[in-house]
Amino acid sequence: MLQAIRRNFTLKLLAVALAITAWAYFHFSAAASITAHFDEQLSVPIVVTGLQPGFTTQFDDRVAQVTVESPRNGPPAKADQIEAVIDLADRTSPGVLNVPVKIVAPDLVIKSFAPASVTLVFDRVETRSVPVGIRFTGNNASLVVVSSRVDPRVTTIRGIASDLAKVAQVTVDIPLAGSKPGDLDAMIRPIVGDARGTSVAGVETSPNLVRVRARFAVATNSAGVRP
Hints:
Low-confidence stretches: 30-35
Structural class: alpha+beta
CATH topology of the largest domain: RNA Polymerase Alpha Subunit, Chain A, domain 2
CATH architecture of the largest domain: Beta Complex
CATH superfamily of the largest domain: YbbR-like domain
Order of helices and strands: HHEEEEEEEEEEHEEEEE
Oligomer: single chain
Largest sheet: 7 strands, mixed
């Protein structure tokens, strides 16, 4: 019996070692292929769904940072596999809202994401018709305005209700400083302003350019002498 064990003992020992090595390799490599994952961060645009007609939103956080779990040996995750959604289907009253961000990614494992919610302005979109005025700016004692007109005389402004409530005037500015005697005929963008003349952001004008025509002449005093 002992002699049978000793016969080719080295080869037998080598065979056992090879068998153990092969078992360990397949066992642990298979386990590694199952459990080996890594975290991947993707930037996903935040979109609004369920918005009722006649409403709009304003918010600053336009991108969500989403961390997903991806297999180390598999293809990397892509941003177009994920949707970051703000659902406003049940919202009908204007105001400042804090709404949750929902992540939709049926083919991925989501580990975390930010922001979890977004603060936004939810308001109605309105339009108004406002006359366009001409505002001459700067000083030019040697020049007088003989005539001026703007075409069209009325513009349509569009924006959220809270912004339109601030609008008191729509004007085109014509600088007198640097102007010379003669005719002006130019397309100028109207400025939407409040009661103090400060520009109101976020309000659109239609048309966005108006035609301004003016005539300038040399200024004279009562005796007909130029100053």
